[in-house]
Amino acid sequence: MSAQPQSFLTPQDYLEGGRQQETRHDFLNDHVFAMTGASRAHNVLCTSLVANLYQQLRGKPCEIYANDMRVKVSETGIYTYPDLVAVCGEPCL
User: Fold this and answer.
1) Residue 51 CA to chain centroid, in angstroms?
2) CB 24 within 8 A of CB 14
3) In Å, what is the CA distance from 81 to each residue of 41, 43, 61?
4) Taking CA atoms, which of 8, 17, 25, 82 is between 20 and 30 Å from 59?
């Protein structure tokens, strides 16, 4: 996440505004944080992780998402775009 948060928002404001944004933003504690771009090394590592995790989960009721899947972490309230998400069973929408 970026070190400089933007103004205070509600989660609903964040979700509605995010649909209109071209760049990705994380949301935590009523603040929006602009996401930075990834380096070549970062992308190579993420691709390797996706490939390895795919092999581990093949044949199981799991789906793997890379990059552009927004996730809400209920325990902290953060909305974020992790590099990799694995969902086994029914995904929460």
Assistant:
1) 18
2) no
3) 18, 14, 22
4) 82
